Amino acid sequence: MPNSDVADITVSTLDYDPVNITMLSSTVASMLTMSLAHPFEIIKIGQQLSFGNYNFGLKHLNPWYYSSGLSALNLAIVSKNILRFPLYNEIIKFLERNNDNFKRDHYHHNLSTITYASTQNILIAGGITGFLESCFYIPFENLKSRMVGNSIILSERKQNVHLSNSKYMVERRQAYIGKQTKRVQQIMEAYRVKPSINLFTSFKEICQTDGIKGFFRGTLPTCMKFSLNSMINFSCYTFITEQILSNHKNDTLSLSLLTSVACSSMIILITQPLDFIKTRTQSNRFGPFYYSSMTDCIKKIAKEETMAAFYKGWFPRFIKVNILNFGIHLGIYSYHNTVGIDLVAMNVNDLVVQGAEPLIFLDYFATGKLDIAIATDFVSGVADGCLLAGCALVGGETSEMPGMYDPGHYDTNGTAVGAVKRDKILPKIDAMQEGDVLLGLASDGVHSNGFSLVRRIIEHVGIKWDEQCPWDSSKTLGEAILVPTRIYVKQLLPSIKEDLLLGLAHITGGGLVENIPRAIPDNLQAVVDMNAWELPEVFKWFGRAGNVPVEDILKTFNMGVGMVLIVKAENVARTKELLKEANETVYEIGKLVSKKSESDPGCIVNNAVNLY
Predict the structure, then answer these.
(1) Tens digit of pLDDT for each residue in 501-553?
(2) Same structural domain for residues 371 and 493?
(3) Which of 99, 215, 233, 474 is the most buried (most CB within 10 A)?
(4) What backbone phi and psi angles, to 5 degrees, belong to 395?
(5) pLDDT at 228 over 70
(6) Is residue 457 part of a domain?
(7) How far is 199 from 206, CA to CA, in rounded Å?
(8) CA dist., res. 337 & res. 602, Å (int)
(9) DSSP codes joined into one string, 320-380
(10) Range of the domain at 487
């Protein structure tokens, strides 16, 4: 028998594909940060092309030269970002196909979400992704190297300086040119006399002087560098977000800075020699005639220069990589996604109390002016909520209504549909009797309810949303308040399927005293003992700060219990076992007793004294 539940809440999703939105946002962020970082790339290449111990200090007098090669890199960024996230997503899904805990339906570029992928497979997927994207990137890298090399030649001539070269350089260049046809020799001389930093002219130069192979010089070191870069980025990011900052997902600035510095440091330490070799082999100053292969390049550098030469240009590259990593990571983080989970939770938790398993979810989003960034964050949160509940996000409706909402305001509702057999519908009112046990499942916070009181108390106290949270110093007030509603569906379904439960009460607005009576017969009363669990600090603080009477706070907040189960005494042990296997915190909070009169309340809470 199908059951549906509809809830209104000021959150929503949007019918935008998060993969496409993320690729677009990260591509724009990459192009902007690449423009900022590119001058450091020019400086790095100049240092890497200097021979021996000579410290190349050429400064371009023409600022335009600091942008040489940028157009080629921006073209490369577009192709690379189109591939990166879908490739990594599909590869990691394939590698984790036998991992039951892996959330294979997540979009894995949204790295704020825990994916439970193994470290080994993250490294493998990152490496394969880096290799495949480098295959598309290498031609653009060679084009960039030609444009940058030409800009250095132009600056050298204007300033009457020259990069230090090997004593064999001129001899080998002439020998290489002499092997070409007369026509090619003339073309090479023409480009040497008049080098260009124009994208199309440089493209034409490579085609006429080197042919197709000119676009694939340095392929091996480039592929190795990209694979290692990708492995380091994905593994460092995953480690930091899952192991260090799992409780600070909304602190996007700190997360971006930390991941940027950590990833960049590891990248420079491990891949700088490969970057140096790539620059040398791709350059028209060295590559075509001085180094016959990657191993030949390594041997000659080790013999003719010091080993320290492999780390030439590390500092400008470190700055460049930091700028790029910070921009990309900041561009793909979620800001409102936790609130999207609330929309789903309010629906599916109300479905499961009927014994129904949620199947599908739909949403409606209304706003005065659509903000793509906010909508993207919401769709990520709603998708996460649906995954936690095990239901499908099948669609929704978006309405843009100018004049109906103030700027930044929006309104939504969600609808969940589930299924339950007719003889399995909860609550089983007729089966309940005195002595039945009440089990409570811990909540994660205020759970989307009581926000009128929350806002009033915060306005009264005068704390700003971005200030330190008074009951949790590791979060801002806004982050602590927006901890999403816990979704209990998957944790409860095993107990429901084993017929262990008589009823369930989702503790929302009205608290324990108003929600438990809805799940029990009129002749019984729920007796709750607040000594059975520790009252979370968030509720103590609101009680003290607002001087809220105990009777009122009990009717407003969940007080640390988000779901109540009604169970026969003989089924308590098995129910607890199943819930603990699902990593739920379970309290035995009370029992059912017979009412002495019809006027007795449906729920009383004992030991609700000195709470705060």
Answers:
(1) 999 999 998 899 999 999 999 999 999 999 999 999 999 999 999 999 999 99
(2) no
(3) 233
(4) 155, -170
(5) yes
(6) yes
(7) 11
(8) 37
(9) HHHHHHHHHHHHH--SSHHHHHHHHHHHHHHHHTTTPEEEEEEEEEEESS--HHHHHHHHH
(10) 427-606
